[in-house]
Amino acid sequence: MITQAKIPHHRRSEVFEVYEAGPDAVQVVGHLIDERPWATGERDLPVVHDIELIITVGLADLTVRAVEVGFHVYPHAECTAIAAAYQQLVGLTIGRGWVNSMRERLGGPAGCTHLRELARAMAPVLLQAAFSARMRAAAETGTDAGEREPDPQALAMLPLLTGTCHIWAEGGIAASKLDLGWRPGTTAYPVPALAELSEQLT
User: Distance (Å, rounded) from C-alpha 188 to C-alpha 164?
Assistant: First the structure.
């Protein structure tokens, strides 16, 4: 059991935030920090990495429109030289195949392992953000979950969830709930079990 008294050898933090970037785009900001909480001297590297990857994505087709890389703290003077390579992400679609396409261009020595980690996680973050934006809009209008109309843009992203976990297995639990008429954001969470939901919706 971890107690507050223990000081870890290393701490990695990854934070993602998604903002509106005009009427038809969002900006996904990924921030990675590697720390050595025990370190006190500059040469012990209290902060090893402090890196940002910022990607602007069109909402209609999830195509990357712009990429920015921020190296704030890094171990080698030459680390920043790889930033320009991440412009190769412009024009790619974030969704199924995103990770493979990104690795083909920026895998191994063609990229930065920490920026790759941020880029890899951006597809699921974007999916969550689509539903969060819908929920936020409904909350701001005071609409109850059961009264919310399905958002076509959010619904268009549902196929991207297929195969991502045991709930979203092809033909699995989530698919069965969708077949019943359930839509994300229309019930309280956790979403009721399939049998219970079936009774509620039929």
Answer: 22
153: nearest Cα among 173, 176, 170, 129: 129
CB proximity list for 135: less than 8 A, separation 6 or greater: 185
Between CA 142 and CA 92 the distance in angstroms is: 37
Amino acid residing at 144? D
- In tens, the pLDDT along 104-133 reads 999 999 999 999 999 999 988 988 887 777
Q: Are residues 189 and 102 in the same domain?
A: no
- The answer to whether residues 24 and 123 belong to one domain is yes
pLDDT per residue over 134-144, tens digit each?
777 777 877 66
d(CA 5, CA 86): 40
Taking the model in full, what pTM does it have? 0.81
Yes or no: say if 49 and 117 are a contact pair by the CB < 8 Å rule: no
What's the one-letter identity of residue 18? V
The alpha carbon dihedral of 143, 148, 152, 157 has a sign of positive
Q: Same domain, yes or no, for 15 and 109? A: yes
Phi, psi of 5 (to 5 degrees): -75, -20
Residue that the structure tokens 């005009």 belong to: 22
Write the DSSP assignment of 142-163 as a string of letters.
T--GGGPPPPHHHHHHGGGGTT
Q: How far is CA 67 from CA 29, 98, 103, in A?
A: 10, 15, 16
Instruction: Answer for the pair 122, 34: CB distance below 8 angstroms, yes or no.
Output: no
